[in-house]
Amino acid sequence: MSVEVRVPTLGESVTEATVATWFKKPGDTVAVDEMLCELETDKVTVEVPSPAAGTFGEIIAAEGETVGVDALLATLNAGDSAGAAPAAAPAAEKSAPASDAAGSSVDVMVPTLGESVTEATVATWFKAVGDTVAQDEMLCELETDKVSVEVPAPAAGTLTEIIAAEGATVDATAKLGVISSGKGAAASAPAATSTPAATSGKDVENAPSANKLMAENGVDAGSITGTGKDGRIMKDDVLKAMSAPKAAPAPAAAPRAASAPADAAREERVKMTKLRQTIARRLKESQNTAAMLTTYNEVDMTEVMSLRNEYKDLFLKKHGVKLGFMSFFTKACIHALNEVPEVNAEIDGTDIVYKNYVNMGIAAGTPTGLVVPVIRDADGMSFADIEKAIAEKGARARDGKLSMAEMQGGTFTISNGGVYGSLMSSPILNPPQSGILGMHKIQDRPMAINGQVVIRPMMYLALSYDHRIVDGKGAVTFLVRVKEALEDPRRLLMDL
Questions:
Q1: CATH topology for 2-95?
Q2: Buried/exposed code over 357-388 (b: 16+ C-beta within 10 A; e: otherwise)
Q3: Which of 230, 303, 372, 375 is least enclosed by beta carbons within 10 angstroms?
């Protein structure tokens, strides 16, 4: 019985992914839930498990192809593994359609560009006319107004003609080039080892997106430790290597007289990562959609710091995790959200959806950009549970191991710019949420207390909110309740 392997749900607002790695080939025996391939989105890497046990049949979406949600990736022959040998034969025949035909030509066509995308621009040709190519080797890259699309070779052979040159705009059905395949075409398959994977001293093929990124930025594959299957270098590995601190360059020669060409020579142009493009798009959408406003207050951190210092050693001994400030802020926000529920709501068309639970987003900085892992049902958690969840999610975020599900479903967000030294800022909403709290640096300042000037550890707080749902009164009340709970943490225990 034939079973289809399809693209799983990729998450909120994610409509497509790139096939990064196939772990199985036609004819292999697979077990149920065994990993078949890895997909890369602009946010995370998604593994695709086998839906059934049996024999791997045919790969429909090759490495490097861009696929939409629920797209067909491959087929399985479910049942007894004895059928492995027969199943492998037709799959192999399909994978090299022109290997027996002398001098046949295969057209290189524009792949599926995605919903509502009708044209693309040819950005880069990785191969020149006359080059030998292996099947599924990357030939060129197209750019649309939404994503970049890599075009793999449909067959092994020689690139004999480039029809759409770099810079040309092509429609969704256009021909890009021609490959001549035939006798000897199968022998050209080892040419794939000329990619950066070979220079790294390994016999595994790196992810096409990783090869492309290394080529664009002059990164040596030998200097990167791959985290993929069998040490395969993934795109995230390259991004992490590029973001790592580099040795200071040698002192530059005395500058020449200022001129446009001289300035250009000292500039560096780096293409935005998909994650950075998504961050930019979502933040701009937030500004364009929500009626965003920010209200400010300040909080005296004396009592929280005193309580923390008093119990931090006992807390660590009993719960195995350090007592930080984030659990206090999380608890204080949950307390305030219960009193001002519109801050914990969202707009859906002409409806307002009130959330009778709190899924707290905790913004975390990573080498590749800001992500917001979500602590689900935080309103039912203890201080220790919250601290453990924050530590675990933060570590996974820094290692790039967060799943899509871990970043979805948040109802409110806390962002701590204070860890970077920020004294005051206006956070941007994380759509479709209606509120985000900005924490800042704790700074000793002179304050008037009972007619006396005393030095107190103060922090500025900022609440950005969607004025379409939250009125000024509700926003100010929310922030005052957070302030009151932090300045007298016993209010949290007494639910006041």
A1: OB fold (Dihydrolipoamide Acetyltransferase, E2P) (2.40.50)
A2: ebbbbbbbbbebbebbbbbbebbebebebbbb
A3: 230
Nearest Cα neighbor of 469 from 310, 289, 326 is 289
d(CA 92, CA 108): 20
Q: How many CB atoms lie within 10 A of CB 198?
A: 15
Per-residue pLDDT tens for 85-139? 333 344 434 444 434 444 588 899 988 776 556 788 888 888 989 899 888 888 9
The question of whether 467 is a catalytic residue gets the answer yes
Per the annotation, the verdict on 319 as an active-site residue is no
- 104-243 CATH, one of 2.30.42.10, 2.40.50.100, 2.102.10.10, 3.90.1800.10: 2.40.50.100
Residue 213: its H or E element: helix 208-217
Backbone angles phi, psi at 346, to 5 degrees: -150, 160
Task: Give the residue with greater pLDDT, 404 vs 147.
Answer: 404
Between the CA of residue 75 and those of 1, 4, 49, what are the distances in Å? 10, 5, 12
Tokens of 133: 């190519």
Kindly report, residue by residue over 328-347, the tens digit of the pLDDT.
Answer: 999 999 999 999 999 999 99
Q: How many residues does the chain have?
A: 496
Q: Where are the alpha helices (DSSP H) in 218-267?
A: 235-243, 260-265
3-state secondary structure 13-30: CCCEEEEEEECCCCCCEE
Selecting among 385, 467, 488, 495, the annotated active-site residue is 467
Catalytic residue among 131, 471, 488, 495: 471
